[in-house]
Design goal:
Order of helices and strands: EHEEHHEHEHEEHEEEEHEE
Oligomer: single chain
Largest sheet: 7 strands, mixed
CATH class: Alpha Beta
Structural class: alpha/beta
Helix content: 10-25%
């Protein structure tokens, strides 16, 4: 198998996308800890399954889907009458998504100067790991969401996340060099979210997949009483007082 550079990880991904209809689209992520997993390429190229529908029904528009791939969630939300936009760095995935009718920005979410109008941001299919630093990514999300908005994330099962912080993609014809990735498990999300200024408003599992709804604390304008207690304003309680938000 021919090895490519880390810059060409996209090449391996795109080769798998284009080869999938011909049965040549197998794609694996191999961790620097020796872990190996087959990536669900067929699911990515399909339509949202029942577990994903439990996420999409919580999404309030406008929605930004970071790492949207071929746009299945963007298209599904549009079918629900919810405005959704994807952001994706792969030109091949963007082209497929646009053919399907998805509105997609071809860019990195870290670099594109997007507005902070989004009520919901999606980080599904393990996309909380983009860039190898989930806290940095969530802080970027915090800068993009409107007040009262939230981030819907997919996580690894409890206590099963690989320790690898670098992975390589292996396709049918080539393997990439190492790229940074951050696997975040269901039990770790409280710490990760808190470090980025979020709390976990809700968490659930469906069909063996694990999800969470992250919200920023709503800061009350009311002062603490004589006992040092604070009153919350409206919003989702997340385990911290309004005058002492996490992070």
């Amino acid at each position: 198998m021919r090895e490519l550079t880390a810059i060409d990880a996209l090449t391996v991904y795109e080769d798998a996308l284009l080869g999938a209809p011909q049965g040549a689209g197998a794609l694996h992520a191999v961790g620097d800890d020796g872990s190996r997993r087959r990536l669900p390429l067929g699911r990515w190229l399909g339509t949202p399954d029942a577990a994903e529908e439990t996420v999409l029904e919580r999404a309030v528009g406008p929605v930004l889907d970071i790492g949207c791939g071929v746009g299945r969630h963007v298209v599904a939300l549009r079918g629900r009458g919810v405005r959704a936009v994807g952001v994706e760095i792969s030109p091949v995935a963007v082209a497929i998504a646009r053919e399907r009718g998805a509105e997609v920005i071809e860019a990195s979410a870290f670099e594109h100067p997007m507005t902070s109008e989004w009520r919901t941001i999606l980080l599904l299919d393990g996309n909380i790991g983009i860039g190898g630093d989930a806290v940095r990514l969530l802080r970027r999300c915090a800068a993009l969401i409107a007040p009262g908005g939230g981030v819907l994330v997919e996580l690894e099962p409890p206590a099963t996340a690989p320790r690898a912080q670098r992975v390589r993609l292996e396709g049918a014809r080539a393997a990439s060099g190492w790229i940074p990735w951050h696997f975040v498990d269901f039990e770790e999300i409280d710490r990760i979210a808190g470090a980025a200024g979020f709390g976990v408003a809700e968490r659930w599992q469906d069909a063996g997949r694990w999800f969470a709804d992250l919200r920023q604390p709503v800061r009350s304008q009311k002062p603490a009483d004589s006992a040092g207690n604070c009153e919350r304003s409206g919003g989702v309680p997340i385990g911290e007082t309004a005058c002492h938000p996490p992070g």
